[in-house]
Amino acid sequence: MDKGDERKKQLLRVALDVLIEKGYYGTSTREIARRAGASSGLLFHYFSNKDCIYLELVKVGVAEMKMDIETAGNAPYDSLLQTVKNIFEQLESNPSFGKMFVFMDQVQHTAVKEKEIEALLESADICRQWEPVILEGQRRGEFREGNPHALCVAVFGAIQGIAQEKVRIPDTPLPKAEWLMDMIVKRTK
Amino acid sequence: MDKGDERKKQLLRVALDVLIEKGYYGTSTREIARRAGASSGLLFHYFSNKDCIYLELVKVGVAEMKMDIETAGNAPYDSLLQTVKNIFEQLESNPSFGKMFVFMDQVQHTAVKEKEIEALLESADICRQWEPVILEGQRRGEFREGNPHALCVAVFGAIQGIAQEKVRIPDTPLPKAEWLMDMIVKRTK
DNA sequence: CGCAAAATTAAGCATATGCTCAATTTTATG
DNA sequence: CATAAAATTGAGCATATGCTTAATTTTGCG
Questions:
Q1: Which terminus of chain A, N or C, has fewer Cβ atoms within 10 Å?
Q2: CATH architecture under which domain A1-48 falls
Q3: Of B21, B176, B188, the CB nearest to A146
Q4: What is the CATH number of domain A57-181?
Q5: Closest nucleotide to residue A4 (Cα to C1')?
């Protein structure tokens, strides 16, 4: 039972809440400490500085955003549908998952001059992740023609926007994953 | 040529940029003034306090978000399609339009204890705006069945998320408006 | 118990912040 | 040009911030 490690995790949880509420620059180390029932000194005992807390959370966020699309041989439609379904399920059941969406979105619009953070964000150009599956779907003639990047933007943007709404108003009803898929499959009418 | 009014507008423009970059709490009145080539004193000559600048921008944002869907007798599909097309055209041609999207999204996740701001945000539950047209489309059998609120969330969330991506990476290719419509029209296959 | 390692605190420093105010410069107009 | 209104400045107060440091308490363990 590493008591110190528990405190650290707790401080990170609180930090995420405050960061979502007030943004990076508006989040004071004092408030994080106070809300966690600790002193400023203690916070700086566990984290060498404020940036370091932020960086740690961004790392978690990037990892969480990388939803592995099991393109392993599966049909592009099925694997994408399953991925979207997974995300929606997590949004319904796990509030901190949605929070991370909001946090990461905020991170991407916040100018923080930290080399390491910028590198992390580039490594996780989350939107483009979907491009290979979409290309494969187009090759097979299952997905509609058009700029594959634009198709990525459509489906990923939708997920992002829907997640934001869900966090803001938790009882928001989520659309069906199939509806989103209809944006990218080839029309038959 | 009201010189003072021009300054005020300029200060508001700069304030929007800084607010998007750093969030409400991280935006200092000094920085707004400095970036606008003015002194702190001048800023407080035009705005009685920081909240007042924020409020003014939120007002503009709320107004800009209320895209009037001309449901006037038009078929729901056509009027919705036209609305989405308009939004995408503005996103391509007018960068400040996209910025407002990002700003308003940030506003909705930022806890600022200002009665007036909360009231404004409620008055502009932007997502639900679309519900009447969607209901009419369902009544006519043109739109798919399902929770109309969820259909709103799908199409509005998508627009929101796409706008965010466009602001973050300006050369992002936008999806076609018709693709978004495919989320809500009744499938024929 | 004894005692070192770990957890925690409180005070404090240098700097940044929101905002005020008296004073100065610029502008417009008779 | 004169003069009042408008625009603008810069110093300054009270408070909040990031972070340090020396000191104190709590914890685990032989």
A1: N
A2: Orthogonal Bundle (1.10)
A3: B176
A4: 1.10.357
A5: C7
Find out whether A155 and A165 touch, Cβ atoms under 8 Å: no
Task: Go through chain A and tell me how many residues it has.
Answer: 189
Annotated domain spans of chain B: 1-48, 57-181
List CB contacts of B183: < 8 A, sequence separation 6 or more.
Answer: A158, A175, A179, A180, A182, A183, B151, B154, B155, B158
Tell which of A17, A18, A22 to mutate to test the B interface (max B CBs under 10 Å).
A22
pLDDT band at B121 (very low <50, low <70, confident <90, very high): confident
Does the nearest atom of strand C lie within 7 Å of B2's Cβ? no
Query: How far away is chain A from the Cα of B164, in angstroms, using its nearest Cα?
Result: 8
What's at A72, amino acid-wise? A
pTM recorded for the entire structure = 0.88
One-letter amino acid of B161: G
